[in-house]
Amino acid sequence: MSPTGGPGPAGLTVGVPSETKDRERRVGLTPSAAGAVIDAGHRVLIERGAGEGAGFPDLVYEKVGAELVEQAEQAWAADLVVKVKEPQPTEYAYFRPDLTLFTFLHLAAEPELTAALVAAGTSAYAYETLTGRGGLPLLAPMSEIAGRAAAIVGAAQLSTAAGGSGTLMGGAAGVPPAKVMVIGLGVAGSCAARGLRGLGAHVTGVDVDLGRLYQLRNDGVVDATLSSEPALLGEHLRLADLVIGAALVPGARAPVVVSAEQVETMRPGSVVVDLAIDQGGCVATARPTSLSNPTYLERGVVHYCVTNVPGQFPRTASAALSAAVLPRLLRLADDVAQGRAGTDDEHPSLAGACNVRDHAVVHPVVAEALAGVGGHG
């Protein structure tokens, strides 16, 4: 389809709309990635200003051959739309049966979005469920940035100006450092732990994988380790100044590891940063917040539960995400153009990415998490 009405080269039109989530300044494709898509024989339609917040002006996109469009609906009219964050309710009207969407979706925590995609018959591919070489290659770069950011954010929220207890991460001469618990030592959790150790905090890592705990303790990423058992967690939570929640089950809602009763035992002015909030959160008292209003006080504890933490570092995050997405996007574009998308012949580099197709949720873990959403398979 050609949103501007004219014939295009062989291949697809790939649309990159501006992000609409609160203070989200990342962009789906950097100029260099857009150029690579064009070199592969596709048209790229960039909504004017989509890259400005990440430091990529319109002129740079034009230089690589991308076409600027004035309105979001023109970018959404493409065959294949590439975004960063899950579509917002104002964008649901753009869904249609002949659209393929490639973005972060987090459908386990987004039943309304899921229902809209299912009803429209849009083919929706999620970055966070795409698997490869035993990992999550499109989620990993954003998890790394979120983890690094969590160390900075957590330290800042402990200041009295932010409502925290006034505890400095590294302490001082004669004063012990802050006590931090990092729950879930995947990419985000281990990066957060490393950053907090760098700030001088005493970091206890929590995970269900004892091998992972052994490795990170030996590598010096954490000072101490703890098996993820409720009774053991409770003892340490009462003394924690900062808790980073980073527990993840790919495609599913995050497991609730910290109960509301345990949060109530935490000291006034302590801080929770729940990086799992995109998937529903792993702390029972967590609820989604935005970059404009990032925190709230619950049971005397400061909660930071922003659903797009990497969005506050848009240049770094856009470059990292775009580099990871590009080869999979080219594969997906080829599959869509040749009618292989969503079939048994789909390219193996897209394994696990398809979440919604033909008016049904087709990813088994996502479908299980969304058992109450109408139309799922």
Sketch the major β-sheet: 8 strands, mixed
- Strand arrangement in the largest pleated sheet: 3-2-1-4-5-6-14-15
In DSSP terms (H or I, runs of 4 or more residues), the helix count works out at 11
Low-confidence stretches: 1-9, 372-377
What does this structure look like?
The protein has 377 residues and is an alpha/beta fold. It has two domains: 13-130 and 313-369, Rossmann fold (3-Layer(aba) Sandwich), CATH 3.40.50; 140-311, Rossmann fold. It is built from eleven helices and 15 strands. The chain has helices at 31-39, 58-63, 72-76, 111-120, 140-157, 187-198, 210-218, 230-237, 260-264, 314-337, 364-369, and strands spanning 13-16, 43-47, 67-69, 80-82, 100-103, 123-126, 179-183, 202-207, 224-227, 242-245, 271-274, 295-298, 301-304, 354-357, 360-361. It has an eight-stranded mixed beta sheet with strand order 3-2-1-4-5-6-14-15, with helices on both faces. Helix 9 (260-264) links the parallel strand 10 (242-245) and strand 11. Helix 5 (140-157) runs parallel beside helix 6. It is globular. Mean pLDDT is 94; it is low at 1-9 and 372-377.
